[in-house]
Design goal:
The structure holds two protein chains of two kinds. Chain A is of the alpha/beta class. Chain A folds into two domains: 4-248, Rossmann fold; 255-387, 3-Layer(aba) Sandwich (Rossmann fold), CATH 3.40.50. Chain A has helices at residues 10-20, 35-46, 60-72, 83-98, 123-127, 141-156, 185-192, 219-248, 273-286, 304-311, 332-340, 362-376, and strands at 4-9, 25-28, 53-56, 77-81, 104-109, 134-137, 164-169, 177-182, 209-210, 255-258, 265-269, 291-296, 298-300, 316-321, 348-353, 384-387. In chain A, strand 6 (134-137), helix 6 (141-156) and strand 7 form a beta-alpha-beta unit. Chain A is globular and about 70 Å long. In chain A, 55% of the residues are buried. Chain B is α/β, with parallel strands linked by helices. Chain B has a single domain (5-311), classed as Thiamin diphosphate (ThDP)-binding fold, Pyr/PP domains (Rossmann fold, 3-Layer(aba) Sandwich), CATH 3.40.50.970. In chain B, helix 3 (50-55) links the parallel strand 1 (42-46) and strand 2 (66-68). The longest helix of chain B has 25 residues, at 287-311. Chain B starts with a helix and ends with a helix. The chains are: A alpha/beta, B alpha/beta. At the A-B interface, strand 3, helix 3, helix 4 and strand 9 of A face strand 1, strand 2, helix 4 and helix 6 of B.
Chain lengths: 391, 312
């Protein structure tokens, strides 16, 4: 497959990926750092490169509501947001999943208020981790683009029919130009396929009622069927990723393993920080330290057995969370992994890092690897630490 | 254009019987009348509220057209999405069945329209979607237990602004949502009641025919929240118009027209007296409140007359 090497920001890359799906409708409201993605998309429409109908709503709550209306009408639909915008969508984020509508969302990860902060962390999407969406994370613009293509196939699979969000780090990925390979429009659209609705409001010969009052006698069964659909996601993600890999040469799975084969110690991370971690891991590898990285691509549904298998038998595992769970036991990634590792004797510990865009630098990775070595040597780990905080 | 009763009654019922509206509810009557006019090629969206709850308890539905409910404050935004999807699917040749036009109707109670949903409504009207939005205004949050809304009239007893020993019901006048909608400069805005069926049918027809959004504000007497005999809901609609409490008027492309001018304006007191929510106003010492209500009704009517004269 001939692919074009281009330099694009993450926002532009996702705008291109979504455009290549030829969506019928986009509904969005601007919020930093998502803005540039919708600017780019609006340019596509203004220049006739895309025939998507855009609904330029007055809030994110209405963006998600209009997206739900559009998808329930049988249209391929997307939106994009960040931070407080996602928080304002909240109520309807759950409804999109409950109505089994395969809406795609560009989720440009940014800290939640307060205080107000426009920079990257994962507290926005993590807050919505139980809402029933598929969450894919990206390390760079290439992965954001690739996830932006694959998300449609995964979400729209008839066994799945669940909304999907493509997470990419605010500013770090969204606003920095990066080299990536882009598929030709035809190849991308052939891969994604023509949209097929599971139901539509727009057929008066076959009227349907969507979103009825659902009480003690049926609500639970509907939730059961939603849970069952979620179970179908991993198989579809693997199949779609394999096909994508065969076409592009870029392979994806639930996670990326970096120098994991013989790793005694493992860092687990999401998003752009993986690149920084890989660099420092390379340095330690040269010194003979057997450390590796497990970068999670699919956080929802959480690939429990897969991750438990990858971490089994390691001497120490450090899990890095770019969001905090107030009053909980560590960050969301840590909570998931500790639960997945129940019954295994692998020492696990957690760092909360990078909140509000605090730079994740090489020294922080060194701290993590030094701690991993101590724990691997038998030292009791501190369960939860803040990394990179002012002393 | 204008329909007669015989024609209306011969049309297909698109809201079936067997829904769970209260005895004496005038809201289901509003839905029925609107659907008789709108016809089958219609998608309806309902905000959370009485009319959504009573028509769609799973596994039943009273709707013979497609219907969508998502939440309380976003019905206009939801129907924006449906309407835009229709235009896009049509443009791309992807409709399930080809058709030139469909009707898009969104509705909410005064809670979903005047209050929590006003942002979503305002946005949808400004964007110019082809939709008819109607509010069934029963002047309080009836579905959650008769709490005050910004549509509740001065002096009315509600569960959150009750008449007690110190306070005498709602202390503020109602918001004039109809005029707020006029200020959106949309092609069609009107006030109606289900008693004035011919007027309502004509307004629905006009609202669906215009290119762009239309808004109807429809008074909906609620026997439970207003505390009246279930037999007199329609009578209360009639008297609300005769007393100028709820004038029937329409604003087409900015031009006001009052559809019914009472020869002699009926006093407001007899109308209030039939409703338990105003009972405390008739206690000794509250005469000034009754006067205040009458003055407000008269002042609003004068304003409306001037708006019409100015246009004429």
């Amino acid at each position: 497959m001939e692919q074009k090497l281009v330099a694009l920001s993450g926002n532009e890359a996702v705008a291109y990926a979504f455009k290549q799906a030829k969506p019928h409708v986009a509904a969005a409201f601007p919020i930093t750092p998502q803005t540039e993605m919708m600017h780019k998309y609006a340019e596509f429409v203004a220049n006739g490169e895309s025939t998507t109908e855009m609904i330029l709503v007055e809030s994110e709550h209405s963006a998600m509501s209009a997206a739900v209306g559009s998808a329930a009408a049988g249209a391929r639909t997307f939106t994009a947001t960040s931070s407080a915008g996602f928080a304002l969508m909240w109520e309807v984020v759950y409804i999109a999943a409950s109505l089994r509508l395969p809406i795609c969302m560009g989720m440009v990860n940014r800290a939640l208020s307060g205080n107000i902060n426009i920079h990257c962390d994962h507290s926005d999407s993590m807050g919505g981790r139980d809402a029933g969406w598929i969450h894919l994370f990206s390390e760079n613009a290439q992965e954001a683009y690739d996830n932006g293509i694959m998300a449609w196939r995964i979400a729209e699979h008839m066994d799945v029919r669940l909304p999907a969000m493509v997470n990419y780090d605010g500013f770090i990925i969204s606003h920095t130009a990066d080299a990536l390979k882009m598929l030709p429009d035809d190849a991308a659209y052939d891969f994604i396929g023509k949209y097929k609705h599971a139901y539509t409001l727009l057929d008066p010969e076959n009227p349907i009622t969507v979103g009825p009052l659902d009480l003690t006698d049926y609500y639970f069964e509907h939730k059961a069927s939603q849970l069952a659909a979620y179970d179908k996601v991993p198989g579809v993600v693997q199949k779609v990723s394999e096909e994508f890999g065969a076409m592009t040469g870029r392979t994806y799975d639930f996670c990326e393993e970096y120098k994991m084969d013989d790793a005694e110690m493992v860092m687990v991370i999401l998003g752009s920080s993986a690149g920084t971690a890989k660099d420092v891991i390379d340095e330690y590898r040269e010194k003979g330290v057997k450390v590796g990285l497990l970068k999670i691509r699919m956080f929802r549904p959480f690939p429990v057995e897969y991750i438990a298998g990858k971490l089994a038998g390691r001497k120490a595992v450090a899990i890095l969370d770019r969001s905090a769970v107030f009053g909980g036991q560590g960050g969301p990634v840590f909570i998931e992994i500790r639960s997945a590792m129940y019954g295994q004797q692998v020492p696990l510990f957690n760092y909360i890092y990078g909140l509000g865009g605090r730079d994740f630098d090489l020294h922080q990775v060194e701290t993590v690897i030094n701690d991993l070595q101590k724990v691997a040597a038998g030292e009791e780990p501190k369960q939860i630490s803040l990394l990179g905080i002012r002393s | 254009m204008a329909v007669n009763l015989k024609q209306l009654t011969q049309r297909e019922e698109l809201l079936t019987g067997g829904h769970r509206a209260c005895a004496g509810c005038t809201g289901s009557n509003i839905l029925r009348q609107i659907m008789l006019t709108a016809g089958k090629d219609t998608v309806v969206g309902g905000a959370t509220g009485c009319m959504e709850v009573v028509t769609t308890i799973f596994p039943y539905t009273a709707w013979r057209t497609s219907f969508i409910h998502t939440a309380f404050e976003n019905c206009a935004a939801t129907i924006s999405g449906v309407e835009t999807a229709f235009r896009s699917l049509k443009k791309h040749g992807d409709l399930p069945r080809e058709r030139e036009k469909m009707n898009f109707i969104a509705f909410g109670g005064d809670g979903g329209t005047y209050d929590i949903g006003i942002q979503s409504l305002s946005g949808a009207m400004e964007r110019g979607h082809n939709m008819l939005y109607f509010c069934y205004d029963n002047e309080a949050y009836m579905n959650t237990g008769i709490q005050r809304s910004s549509a509740t009239p001065f002096g009315a007893h509600t569960s959150t602004a009750p008449a007690g020993t110190v306070k005498q019901g709602k202390e503020q006048n109602r918001k004039d949502l109809t005029k707020i909608m006029v200020a959106h400069n949309i092609p069609y805005v009107a006030q109606a009641t289900p008693f004035h069926w011919k007027d309502l049918a004509a307004k629905v027809e006009k609202g669906l025919a215009v290119d762009g959004p239309a808004f109807l504000n429809i008074l909906m007497p609620c026997p439970v929240g207003w505390h009246f005999d279930t037999a007199i809901g329609m009578q209360l609609c009639k008297e609300a118009v005769e007393s100028n409490f709820w004038p029937l008027f329409e604003v087409e492309n900015g031009i006001y027209k009052i559809n019914q001018k009472p020869k002699e304006r009926a006093p407001i007191e007899p109308w209030l007296k039939q409703q338990g929510r105003f009972k405390h106003l008739f206690r000794p010492g509250n005469e000034n409140m009754l006067e205040q209500i009458q003055q407000h009704v008269d002042a609003e009517w004068e304003k409306l007359l001037k708006l019409e004269t100015k246009d004429a």
